[in-house]
Design a protein that fits this description.
Order of helices and strands: EHEHEHEHEEHEHEHEHEHEHH
Distance between the termini: 49 Å
Helix content: 40-55%
Structural class: alpha/beta
Strand order of the largest sheet: 1-11-10-9-7-8
Radius of gyration: 20 Å
């Protein structure tokens, strides 16, 4: 039986739920004082703007709706690639000059974006982290999946396919992002004694094409590889396409993150054994509606 691992109903979206509860409580408290104020100006910088990617498309749509419903004006700026940290840094500084009330961002790197985001705070702009985190606790609000727990659950589920001869390949997305690090750590812990069966971890830089080629290369380098784990939509779909085109779907146990239409089709076709489901639209919606909440936080 193919499995959908719905982490949003377990602990994988605990932080998202808590922010949502806090948001509505805060709105009820501050509404009489804020209803006459000018709309808040919110800028959102996702890791990428890519119409081919279901996760980011849904997350941006959610952020726009959340901002609209809570009376904020929102602008969205993004790079062409999740891995383009330098361009995201340029966007951060250009957005500081626009002086919004709040900046919502999915950091493209766990540590390289920290200094720029400190500058955001020092400029008096509220900071909302979405999807990913950084190495300092400076944000006014954080809305994201508990990626370590999600990874651990996927690792635990994958154990049912494993034995002492299994060979595991991991197709990750962008090295240095909190999501990649936390998911990999969770998977390793979830695999337990089978962690030693991981033969290789490759990074596709959130490119379908690169994930495809890296997967084909791994399967060539390790002919006995029989388990593949994709850590985001790009890596999971790229790997699944390679498995499909090589005609080895009946030999490979695949699991992955996210739930785009193409991934669901692969799940139904038996290419994936299980996928971790996030709720990007809800994540964006809660993030887009946090500006009133952040305003009253110290």
């Amino acid at each position: 039986m193919r499995k959908w691992i719905k982490t949003q109903w377990t602990s994988a979206l605990i932080s998202c739920i808590l922010v949502g509860i806090s948001l509505f409580v805060m709105l009820a408290l501050v509404w009489p004082d804020t209803k006459e104020k000018d709309p808040y100006k919110l800028i959102f910088i996702p890791k990428t703007i890519d119409p081919s990617n279901g996760f980011w498309t849904s997350l941006i749509q959610g952020a726009k709706l959340g901002a609209t419903e809570f009376g904020a004006e929102i602008e969205v700026y993004g790079t062409d690639s999740e891995g383009d940290v330098d361009e995201q840094l340029e966007l951060i500084y250009s957005c500081i000059e626009k002086k919004p009330d709040a900046l919502m961002i999915a950091p493209a790197d766990y540590s390289r974006t920290t200094e720029a985001l400190r500058d955001v705070k020092e400029s008096g702009i509220k900071l909302i982290l979405l999807d990913s985190t950084i190495d300092q606790n400076i944000a006014d609000a954080v809305v994201c999946t508990d990626n370590y727990v999600a990874g651990r659950e996927l690792g635990e589920y994958t154990r049912r396919f494993l034995d002492g001869k299994s060979v595991i390949g991991v197709v990750a997305h962008v090295q240095g992002t909190s999501t990649a690090m936390e998911r990999e750590n969770g998977i390793r812990d979830g695999l337990g004694e089978y962690e030693a069966r991981i033969a290789d971890v490759v990074f596709c830089n959130s490119s379908y094409e690169k994930a495809y080629e890296l997967t084909k290369q791994m399967l060539s380098d390790y002919p006995n590889m029989n388990v593949l784990i994709g850590l985001n939509e790009y890596s999971a779909i790229g790997a699944a396409r390679a498995v499909r085109d090589m005609g080895v779907a009946d030999k490979i146990h695949m699991v992955g993150f996210d739930s785009s239409i193409e991934e669901i089709q692969y799940l139904e076709a038996g290419v994936f054994e299980a996928i971790i489901i996030q709720k990007p639209f809800n994540m964006g919606y809660l993030g887009g509606g946090t500006d009133d909440q952040c305003t009253d936080q110290p």
